[in-house]
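Progress report, Aim 2. The chain analyzed during this reporting quarter is listed below.
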Amino acid sequence: MAEWVGIGRRARRCYGFDEIALAPGKVTLNPEEVDASWELSGKKFNIPIIAAAMDGVVDVEFAIAMSKLGGIAVLNLDGVQTRYDNPRSVLEDIAKASPQEATNLIQKIYTTPIKEKLVAKRVAEIKEKGGYAAVSCIPQNAAKFALLAEEAGVDCFVVQSTVTTAHHVSTKYTPLDLTKFCSERKVPVILGNCVTYDVTVELLETGCSGILVGVGPGAACTTRGVLGIGVPQVTATIDCAAARDFYYQKTGKYVPIITDGGMRRGGDVCKAFACGSDAVMIGSAFARAKEAPGRGFHWGMATSHGNLPRGTRIEVGVSGNLESILFGPAVVDDGSQNLMGALATSMGSLGARMIKDMHFVEIIIAPSIQTEGKLFQAVQRVGMGK
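Predicted structure tokens for the chain:
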């Protein structure tokens, strides 16, 4: 229900992860017996948590490691991996930069043109080691890069921008025809990002294989501050999930939605699934892995924009290896490790045997859920007080 925010103007109340909680039901399950897998175009993945296409998170080695564990890591084809033959030294420079000079340095680094030969090379490097090759680029580069990536054996292609619609208008260039693009592809196509019911329905009608949900919630993203746009992830996920269900009822085709960003710990991931997500995409938690190329640093995808950066570089530190972040054992108390263990335990406590069962658990509005009884944690900056 909308509320009056001024004379003649109403606004809908929307919710983020910190404002809700999940209420246990009448049945509980052994966490070891739940199934947290999901499917993308008929292929099953045991880990429903995707590593975001961000240069501080995913490189070739990280993508291979994630594949071996049963998940997907998306490589950014617009970033340093395709601009530099040896991106490691460039990534070291970004990690060494002071906070004051980091954004400007990233802007300069990303002015080096993309080398098309590296698009195919990076995909081939992932495939040579038996990895699942998922790559991402902006719509302007999609048609060209998709052909190069497919020739190299890519498994999944992601077209991603701050806000994606099926009806982009421009007199300066020819917008990407998403329906045509999806129909011409030999591999699954994921489109993003969106946050509303109507846009999700229209994107689903393009024939894509997945939808990314989220505008501005990422830890290193500043879109909400710079542009003032975005919808909190709880409401955005629920609305987009409703569109997915409508499309399924209409066509018989089930297309997964993927909540992208805004999840700091295991509890947030669990809440995303309860809101209707089929998988989630996260960056900051994986940026803390020893295998991540950012060396404990993480920056937004639009940090490099030459005229209006919509991201920043943040220091997240290195907390453990990728396996410990996904499967434990957790050695930190903030819920950022053993994400799969947290999901399985939550599913068991809620009586959800499969991810889709999570879509029907009870959600309650709980503004005190993060603070109730947590005074000592907040004062001492430990646990949930960090």
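Residues 97 and 248 are 48 Å apart (CA to CA). The first strand starts at residue 2 and ends at 6. These observations will guide the mutagenesis work planned for the next reporting period.
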